[in-house]
Write a structure and sequence with these properties.
Number of strands of chain B: 11
Strand content of chain A: over 45%
Structural class of chain B: mainly beta
Oligomer: heterodimer
Order of helices and strands of chain B: EEEEEEEEEEE
Largest interface: A-B, 23 and 20 residues
Structural class of chain A: mainly beta
Number of helices of chain A: 0
Radius of gyration of chain B: 14 Å
Helix content of chain A: under 10%
Largest sheet of chain A: 7 strands, mixed
Helix content of chain B: under 10%
Radius of gyration of chain A: 13 Å
Number of helices of chain B: 0
Order of helices and strands of chain A: EEEEEEEEEEE
Strand content of chain B: over 45%
Distance between the termini of chain B: 38 Å
């Protein structure tokens, strides 16, 4: 399995500001993913981040709102831009290994 | 349109009894299914999976059954233990989709009563 850490673990932010979430993996992986879990709902894939290429966004998510970086095979960042209260969610990164996905602990974001 | 559905938001069972969590899917391209367990303030933890070429996969107290014709899978936990209390998500993917994209259900909160 993979050990995945995320920073910050939680944050409370003001409307209109931006937050960058970091995801660090203890081994090199090709595919990393960013998910969102809104209160009481399921996990929804935001985008797939592969090293060396642009992130691929799912329907309903755009790069201007959720820019992603993937500078190397062990690290990625997700920025939540121009936040509104509707962005309050848990944001999780995951990696694909051995036909499974392993998840980080998540970042709990509250936007006031 | 929800492609993966967990119609029971919660389930309560007595310790020692069997827990059965259900999941339905609509996309016939899905051929790999996974169950994840999630505790509060933690990320989902992989529990067990099944490929569409099988109808059953067992790992200790956990067994997943797949009924392809009904597009239905279930997770059986026996015997249930209080430490099993968590939210359980089923997820599905299509092997033809090389991105390993997972589509998740909405989750079932399991409470195992001592």
């Amino acid at each position: 399995s993979a050990v995945i850490s995320q920073k910050p673990s939680r944050d409370i932010c003001q409307r209109g500001t931006s937050l960058t979430i970091q995801c660090q993996v203890d081994s090199q992986v090709t595919m990393m993913f960013w998910y969102r879990q809104q209160p009481g709902q399921s996990l929804t894939l935001i985008a797939t981040a592969n090293q060396g290429s642009e992130a691929t966004y799912e329907s309903g998510f755009v790069i201007d709102k959720f820019p992603i970086s993937r500078p190397n095979l062990t690290f990625s960042t997700l920025t939540v831009s121009n936040m509104s209260p509707e962005d309050s969610s848990i944001y999780l990164c995951s990696v694909a290994m051995y036909n499974e996905q392993f998840f980080g602990p998540g970042t709990r974001l509250t936007v006031l | 349109d929800q492609q993966v559905k967990q119609n029971s938001p919660s389930l309560s069972v007595q310790e020692g009894r069997i827990s059965i969590l259900n999941c339905d899917y609509t996309n016939s391209m899905f051929d790999y299914f996974l169950w994840y367990k999630k505790y509060p303030a933690e990320g989902p933890t992989f529990l067990i999976s099944i490929s569409s070429i099988k109808d059953k996969n067992e790992d200790g107290r956990f067994t997943v059954f797949l009924n392809k014709s009904a597009k239905h899978l279930s997770l059986h936990i026996v015997p249930s233990q209080p430490g099993d209390s968590a939210v359980y998500f089923c997820a599905a993917s299509a092997s033809g989709d090389s991105s390993y994209k997972l589509i998740f259900g909405s989750g079932t909160r399991l409470l195992v009563r001592p």
